[in-house]
């Protein structure tokens, strides 16, 4: 270790100002001096803080793309099979409240930044679920309602900090409850449908990492308990993903529902009806329409 320290210290003692200032802003003066300037890895307190910061930045980076596979699956299939709109509604509401609470409390961005990025992706996914479910006008109402709620949550003149604390307690419940409709949908349909495995497993790892970063950087039990409960239900959803991994399509696929009226329309346009075919004739040609 002494050899490594003597090799690296000429570099760490002469870091450019932008790099040094950025590191100090993340670690603080004391931990910057211990870990980077002096390369003292025996300082466990600062080492845990550095790991927490690294995990936080990694989570934020991953959150920028965590829902992209889900968006692509929806757009390519043009089907919302296996995806619960209620789950996305509850999760987005929970994230919006948590984002406002963390921001107004002045917590480090590395401990909550992913909520903003995931919330934006959730809005897009929820709108597509409504659109492909035949409820296009409801998507506009959904987005407008979230915009109004966001304005109220970030405005101290509308919602004070005391009320926001109560809402944050409710947001933890919403976050946990948001997983229940998705778990139920997967179980009910007997498959995961268009649910993205990438998003599910990233959520599992992200919620586990957030428990660690919250313990290290945020002294707030409301947030901690929310992440613990979320991790438990994310584990259930991940287990379902593994269990149904090689299962066939879910019990009720939208494809069969779409084909039936198409066949009836063809039969009507050709003047042929399956019910009007004579009993003595072979049904093979008439019933094809």
3D structure, described in words:
The chain has 289 residues and is mainly alpha-helical. Helices cover 74% and strands 0% of the residues. The protein contains 13 helices and no strands. The protein has helices spanning 2-12, 17-37, 44-63, 68-77, 85-105, 113-132, 136-154, 161-177, 179-189, 197-217, 221-243, 254-269, 283-286. The protein is globular. 31% of the residues are buried.
Radius of gyration: 26 Å
Distance between the termini: 81 Å
* Largest β sheet strand count, sense and barrel closure: none
Q: Which structural category do the helix and sheet elements fall into?
A: mainly alpha
Annotation field: number of helices: 13
Order of helices and strands: HHHHHHHHHHHHH
How helix-rich are the residues, as a percent range? over 70%
Average pLDDT, all residues: 80
Hey, roughly how much beta strand do the residues contain?
Answer: under 5%
Count of DSSP strands: 0
- What general form does the structure show? globular
Identify low-pLDDT runs: 252-289
Topology overview:
Blueprint: H1 2-12, H2 17-37, H3 44-63, H4 68-77, H5 85-105, H6 113-132, H7 136-154, H8 161-177, H9 179-189, H10 197-217, H11 221-243, H12 254-269, H13 283-286
Features:
289 residues, mainly alpha, globular, disordered C terminus, Mannose-P-dolichol utilization defect 1 protein homolog
């Amino acid at each position: 270790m002494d050899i490594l320290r003597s090799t690296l210290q000429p570099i760490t003692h002469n870091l450019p100002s932008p790099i040094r200032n950025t590191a100090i802003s993340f670690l603080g003066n004391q931990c910057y001096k211990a870990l980077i300037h002096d390369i003292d890895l025996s300082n466990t307190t600062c080492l845990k803080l550095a790991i927490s910061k690294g995990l936080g930045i990694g989570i934020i980076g991953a959150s920028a793309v965590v829902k992209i596979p889900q968006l692509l699956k929806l757009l390519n299939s043009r089907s919302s099979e296996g995806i619960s709109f209620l789950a996305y509604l509850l999760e987005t509401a929970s994230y919006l409240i948590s984002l406002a609470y963390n921001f107004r409390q002045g917590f480090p961005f590395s401990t909550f930044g992913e909520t903003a990025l995931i919330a934006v992706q959730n809005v897009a996914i929820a709108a597509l679920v409504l659109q492909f479910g035949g409820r296009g006008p409801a998507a506009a109402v959904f987005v407008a309602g979230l915009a109004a709620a966001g304005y109220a949550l970030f405005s101290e003149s509308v919602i004070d900090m005391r009320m926001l604390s109560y809402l944050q307690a409710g947001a933890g419940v919403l976050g946990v409850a948001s997983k229940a409709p998705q778990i139920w949908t997967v179980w009910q349909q007997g498959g995961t449908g268009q649910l993205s495995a990438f998003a599910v497993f990233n959520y599992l790892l992200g919620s586990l990492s957030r428990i660690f970063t919250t313990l290290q950087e945020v002294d707030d039990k409301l947030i901690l308990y929310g992440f613990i409960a979320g991790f438990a239900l994310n584990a259930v959803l991940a287990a379902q993903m593994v269990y149904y991994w090689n299962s066939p399509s879910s019990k009720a696929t939208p494809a069969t529902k779409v084909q039936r009226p198409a066949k009836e329309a063809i039969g009507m346009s050709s003047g042929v009806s399956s019910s009007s075919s004579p009993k003595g004739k072979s049904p093979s040609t008439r019933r094809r329409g």
